[in-house]
Amino acid sequence: MPRKPITPDNAYLRLATLCARCEQAEGDLRKKLRDWGIASSDTDAIISRLKQERYLDNERYARAYCRDKLRFNGWGRIKIAFMLKGKGIEQEFIDAALAQINEEQYVNILNEALEAKARSLKDKEPQQARASLLRFAASRGFESNLIFPAVSRLTHYNNDD
To answer: Which of 26, 76, 83, 119 has the most C-beta neighbours closer than 10 Å?
Structure first.
């Protein structure tokens, strides 16, 4: 049985409810509207109304996304920026969100992730362990100027044991 078509008013109400629960990216909402079969002129009107009524704010979304991905997923700036770009967030909002990161907390998150990974690599040769740690930190999206010193400190410390 085919689904009952969603009217633009119903689509607006659904998205307003969704945005009230948690921050959403404009690109994700546009995709939902497209999936629901809403015309592009109606989509623009719905998005405009959501922005006007402050349900939708890409800058606020970028800040929340950045904070959450750093804290809960342990991602670095590079991966966060890449993912936000993929969601169609403007570069100025991405830069502002990344600027809010506390540098000391950021480095601590990197070090804790590397220490946890190093514990799982105890049986590996030192060079293999070092390469694994470098790949791991890079895959998390941390910058190489932070990765190399952190890995060197960690592998040097472990070699002293």
So the answer is: 76
